[in-house]
Design a protein that fits this description.
Layout lengths: L11 H7 L27 E7 L3 H4 L3 H11 L4 E7 L3 H10 L17 E5 L6 H11 L14 E5 L15 E3 L3 H17 L4 H11 L3 E2 L4 E6 L2 E7 L37 E4 L1 E2 L9 H5 L4 E2 L2 H15 L3 E5 L9 H12 L5 E3 L7 H9 L8 E6 L3 H6 L6 H13 L4 E8 L6 H16 L2 H4 L4 E8 L16 H18 L4 E5 L2 H11 L5 H10 L13 H10 L4 H5 L19 H15 L11
Parallel strand pairs: 1-2, 1-3, 3-4, 4-5, 9-12, 12-13, 14-15, 15-16, 16-17
Antiparallel strand pairs: 5-6, 7-8, 10-11
Helix pairs in contact: 3-6, 5-18, 9-10, 11-13, 14-16, 18-19
Amino acid sequence: MPMRQKQIRVVKELVEQKFLPFVRRPSRYIGGEVNQIKKDLHSLDISVGLCFPDIYEIGMSYTGMAVLYEVVNRLDWAAAERVFVPWTDAEQVMRKNDVPLYSLESMAAAADLDILGFSMTNEMCFTNVLNMLDLAGVPIRSAERDEKCPLIIGGGQIANSAEPMSKFIDMFVLGEGEEALVKILELFREFKQKGGARKEFLVEAAKRFEFVYVPSLYEFEYDGEKIKSFKAKQDDLATSFKNAVVEDLDSAVIPPAPIVPFAEAVHERISIEIMRGCPGRCRFCQASFCRRPIRFRSVDKIVEAAKEIYHATGFDTVSLLSLSTADYPELEELVVRLNEYFAPKRVGLSLPSLRVKEQLELLPKLMTSVRKGGLTIAVEAASEKLRKVINKPITNADLFAAVEAAYKEGYQLVKLYFVVGFPGETEDDIKEIANLSYEIARLRRKTDNKTANVNVAVSWLVPKSHTPFGWLGQKDKTYFENARSIILKQKRELNAKFLQFKFHHIETSILESCMGTADRRMCDVIETAWKGGAKFDLWTECFNYDIWKEAFAAHGLDPERLAQRSYAAEEILPWQHLGGPDKKSLAGHFKEAMDIAGQNPDRTPAAF
């Protein structure tokens, strides 16, 4: 059966009469913002819904979605429109009044668009993806869809560990999306024009592009918990895939006029990606291993783009994005040139993702236009030995020098990030989180005889796929509860009221761990949890761990045991076919980490 021709329902009247008057924040759902791109969907070959599985305010802050929006809309034969998850009050109104999920630009029924592409940035958005499909009226499982249904594409960081969502997504795009998506759309257009069938398109895309993974064309064989084999259902299909890579970052798209949100977004900034990849390889960080090679944008390109976006939006902060902004080789020149233009306009400069190194000590002197609200540093581990284990070789001397320089330049607030649960970690390492934070707060006394306020965020290690720690199981719940008690007890003993600790939700980390390294049998658990009411699992007010435990139990599973499961050297890993470094490279990192940590378990994957 050939692909369907478009018959797109515009539900504007239904939305205005049966939906908008009854929701709490209608500005999330109306579209029509400054710089929105609206095309005539009925006159184009392909319509794409860019779906973000969280609310408007979060999705509008995601630079990756803005880039894809610009890329697709530059094609004269295609259109991209935005689709976000309605908040709980809006969902109830939609279901009560039969209002389908729709795009903001044309208020077109999402189910009538040719393609729905989901940007999935973390495991806790899975139930929202299912909820969006259901609200659109699209069958949850790919096997139940026919030619009338839109093609469902999944992308983002989660594509590199796609199996837990493999029964719901027709096609995954691995790696960087802007060039890859255009190639897929060109092929889709070709098939649509000649009346090709959906299944034929999926097979051809899987054959043609090494960054495309179509789960329905592959099958696993299991031996208990372990994977016995992974194979294609037909002989001419590849069984390993590679991430799409944009080779020339300077030529890559920067949206010149991003949409200015109606509802206040989490970040309303001139956001420009200055580099991709990270010179460091922290052994717990998936992005640092999967997003290679390292590429830089030129200073001229960045400065001109910032000026153009400023005049198109009026945003009052320039944010320089990357995994490690301090490693941009021309950072000092870039900051000086941006300040020269923007400081007189009272436009601030934000430098997130700064690593502690000698260069960071110099930066506060350059950032004269930066709002001195706070300095954020991801320390990760409090002891220098543990930093060597995770391959983040910074010293306390470098850290103190950087913070002291910041205090001298007027910074009054510091935010620190730590992770608990690394291999080789001791009780003293955990206690040192409070001690180190205390010392950083008191460093300000050298400048103005005052103690700084220091906010400390502590999260729990989630072993990630495609990292050296991917073979490890997560520490158990009791370990994390005890760590939290140790830190708070040490804070009391130090009488450090100026330290404010915030701890990540332990049960959320458990779910992230067991889903992030799971095989496709996890799909059944996710669907059961969603049917049981799970949604917005990243939101504290919505997350319900009991729903998830019941869903796991319904399939004879225990989330905490799955999260703690480690993998043996010889095992087929559920993600090893999905891009990323090869096992040999990761195994070398694993062995080195374990040697430094003083641990050499039998499962060390030295055999690779």
